[in-house]
Design brief:
With 136 residues, this protein is of the alpha+beta class. The chain folds into 2 domains: 21-77; 83-136, Signal recognition particle alu RNA binding heterodimer, srp9/1. It has helices at 24-33, 86-96, and strands at 13-20, 37-43, 50-56, 59-64, 78-82, 99-100, 106-108, 115-121, 127-133. Strands 1, 2, 3, 4, 5, 6, 7, 8 and 9 form a 9-stranded mixed beta sheet that branches. The radius of gyration is 15 Å and the shape is globular. 23% of the residues are buried. The model has no long low-confidence stretch (mean pLDDT 91). Residues 13-133 form the VOC domain. InterPro entries: Glyas_Bleomycin-R_OHBP_Dase, Glyas_Fos-R_dOase_dom, VOC_core. It comes from Limosilactobacillus equigenerosi DSM 18793 = JCM 14505. GO terms for molecular function: dioxygenase activity. Keywords: Dioxygenase, Oxidoreductase.
């Protein structure tokens, strides 16, 4: 597919890599053993499912329960790119003809002021998330 516009300039770095787990404690303990430190822990649905963010150096992992782990190569669910304006990036992606996986920008109450994000599909059906951590 040829894109009439680029999304270059709508993100500045990788934000995180996301993966589901069946055992949050074991997964957190494993990555803690590799040197990752927990940065955030949030309830995702008021039914006991959680999401944990862990960081080492410049790499952040998003690990969550409720979707089931793949338990094979391909266990990574998505790559998230950091954007300072999810709404503008969404419009640019839509205008450029990218395969949007979301009909609109999504909102969640993570961190102090929430996040805004949307997902596109890559050429191999990989999910690429554009995520904005909302500032005050």
């Amino acid at each position: 597919m040829a894109f009439n516009k680029s999304l270059a300039g709508y993100f500045d770095d990788i934000q995180h890599i996301g993966m589901p787990t069946d055992d949050l404690k074991a997964t957190v303990d494993f990555y803690a053993g590799l040197g990752f430190k927990m940065q955030g822990n949030f309830d995702t649905d008021n039914q006991g499912n959680q999401v944990v963010f862990m960081i080492v150096g410049h790499l952040t992992l998003e690990i969550w329960t409720g979707d089931g782990a793949v338990h094979e190569t391909g266990a990574i669910n998505h790559i998230s790119l950091n954007t300072s304006d999810a709404d503008a990036a969404f419009k640019a992606a839509k205008d450029a003809g990218y395969n949007l996986k979301d009909a609109e920008v999504q909102h969640l109450d993570f961190w102090d002021h929430g996040i805004k994000f949307f997902n596109i599909a890559g050429p191999n059906d990989e999910t690429i998330e554009f995520c904005e951590i909302v500032k005050g």
